[in-house]
């Protein structure tokens, strides 16, 4: 039985509709060849917990008006429960994976992409890591220089990493 780590930072069904084949179709094909076990690693979107750029600018601007440094806004936005969003995304994915015949379980991580994958793969063996991301993380410069998180994972995992993003191309990146 092959073991897959499916790393999510976006809604899997939305990504599957935009890609041909999408992550679900890809795993269904793998399941047809050989039974598979999938561990879903749903990443908490920590960008939602930070204040907006305007809030940070205002916090920085107030530090110039007083002698002591200002405290930047750090409280999560009250209208968005990031843990619940990650849990919902994970549970929905597990339901779809079991519907296509895969054994599936899940976990949630609030670590960044690379650290979360490294932590999980250090503790468990996987035949392949599948990244289902809304977009490549990192600045355009980091992506150009191949210093972004996705390229970091590609250096470590090579052909054992399959990347599905909402980018302009329609083929999974191996």
SSE layout and pairing:
Layout: E1 2-8, H1 12-18, H2 23-33, E2 36-43, H3 53-65, H4 82-99, E3 103-109, H5 113-123, E4 128-132, H6 140-144, H7 149-157, E5 161-164
Parallel strand pairs: 1-2, 1-4, 2-3, 4-5
In words, what does this structure look like?
The protein is an alpha/beta fold and 174 residues long. The chain has one domain: Rossmann fold (3-Layer(aba) Sandwich). Helices cover 43% and strands 18% of the residues. It contains 7 helices and 5 strands. It has helices at residues 12-18, 23-33, 53-65, 82-99, 113-123, 140-144, 149-157, and strands spanning 2-8, 36-43, 103-109, 128-132, 161-164. The chain has a 5-stranded parallel sheet with strand order 3-2-1-4-5, with helices on both faces. The chain is globular, with a radius of gyration of 18 Å. The chain starts with a strand and ends in a 10-residue tail after the last strand. The model is unreliable at 68-74 (pLDDT under 50).
């Amino acid at each position: 039985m092959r073991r897959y780590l499916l790393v999510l930072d976006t809604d899997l069904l939305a990504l599957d509709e935009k890609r041909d084949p999408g992550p679900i179709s890809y795993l269904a094909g793998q399941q047809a060849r050989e039974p598979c076990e999938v561990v879903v690693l749903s990443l908490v979107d920590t960008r939602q917990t930070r204040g907006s750029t305007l809030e940070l600018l205002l916090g920085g601007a107030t530090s110039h008006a007083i002698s002591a440094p200002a405290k930047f806004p750090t409280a999560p936005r009250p209208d968005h429960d990031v843990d619940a969003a990650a849990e919902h995304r994970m549970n929905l994915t597990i339901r779809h994976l079991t519907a296509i015949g895969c054994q599936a379980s899940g976990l949630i991580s609030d670590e960044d992409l690379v650290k979360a994958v490294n932590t999980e793969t250090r503790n468990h063996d996987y035949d392949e890591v599948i990244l289902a991301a809304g977009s490549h993380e990192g600045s355009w410069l980091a992506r150009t220089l191949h210093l972004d998180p996705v390229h970091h994972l590609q250096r470590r995992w090579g052909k054992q990493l399959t990347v599905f993003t909402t980018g302009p191309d329609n083929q999974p990146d191996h």
